[in-house]
Amino acid sequence: MKYIEPHAHMVSRVTDDYVKITTAGCQAICEPAFWAGFDRSSVQGFYDYFCQLTEHEPKRAGKFGLPHFCWLCINPKEAEDVKLAEEVIAIIPKFLDGPNVLGIGEIGLNKNSRNELKVLELHVDLAARHDQLILVHTPHLEDKLKGTRLIVDALKNDKRIRPERVIIDHVEEHTIKLVLDSGMWAGMTLYPESKCTPARAIDMAEMYGNERLWMNSACDWGVSDPLAVPKTALEMRRRGHSVESIEKLVLQNPGRFLSQCPKFKPG
Ligand SMILES: [Zn+2]
């Protein structure tokens, strides 16, 4: 089955994962900028990371015939240092014209702090000034509902932002309606241990319909599964979903959202 992986942190994955996902039918892979598992000590660390995302990782994916795209930002976990965040945001524009850059992400909140909110607003302004798509990370566990509300409000408050050009990722049962009602897209992250299991994701798709909705593995350096999307597609088939409705969720929907950036071309 053909599918698009709209959220994967391939710099943390081994080459065998590229073999697995291309064998499973992946047509394109998209990599948001994120927390590397440790705090970078300077803006130079981010400069090198952005070079990795825009130059080196696309070459590695290209060896498997897989188109690689990315999103750029300073992630919320490192956004507590507003001065560093301002320095990082200042170097992003020079990367935005890169052929694989889709937009600004994954921005958002982690602990819902005042500084994180300030840096979120700086990113939203950056996206608006450069007419970029936005991909948003929402906080975990008890911070998720409040954080999602704060994020949706911040995006709505900036009248330059069109909701259909924003995807709010890591939605769960208690946040998906809030996101879809705002006119933005919702992403469901399939994790073996936290976030959302395949069964819960399929339940949500059945309850809320599969418009403005996608699924991703968000595979990274932690316990995660780069094949989570095709495995969930198989589970949908077992539950009796039609091939057409599965393809809509795993291929056409991400394609429709991402193609709002003209640079996005799946394989
Ligand atoms: Zn991520």
Largest sheet: 8 strands, parallel
Spatial order of the strands forming the largest sheet: 1-2-3-4-5-6-7-8
- In terms of structural class, how would the helical and strand content be classed? alpha/beta
- The number of distinct β-strands equals 8
Output the radius of gyration. 17 Å
> What's the oligomerization state?
single chain
Strand content: 5-15%
Small-molecule binders: zinc ion
N-end to C-end Cα span:
13 Å
DSSP helix count?
A: 9
| Helix amount | 40-55%
Summed over residues and divided by their number, the pLDDT gives a mean of 96
Global outline? globular
Q: Poorly predicted ranges (pLDDT <50, ≥5 residues)?
A: none
Order of helices and strands: EHEHEHEHEHEHEHEHH
Question: What does this 3D model show about the protein?
Answer:
With about 270 residues, the protein is of the alpha/beta class. Helices cover about 40% and strands about 15% of the residues. The chain has nine helices and eight strands. The protein has helices at about 15-25, 45-60, 80-90, 115-130, 145-155, 175-180, 200-210, 230-240, 245-260; strands at about 5, 25-30, 70, 100-110, 135, 165-170, 185-190, 215. The protein has an eight-stranded parallel beta sheet. β3, α3 (about 80-90) and β4 form a beta-alpha-beta unit. α4 runs parallel beside α5 and α8 packs antiparallel against α9 (about 245-260). It starts with a strand and ends in a 9-residue tail after the last helix. The mean pLDDT is about 95. Zinc ion binds near residues 7, 32, 34, 106 and 218.
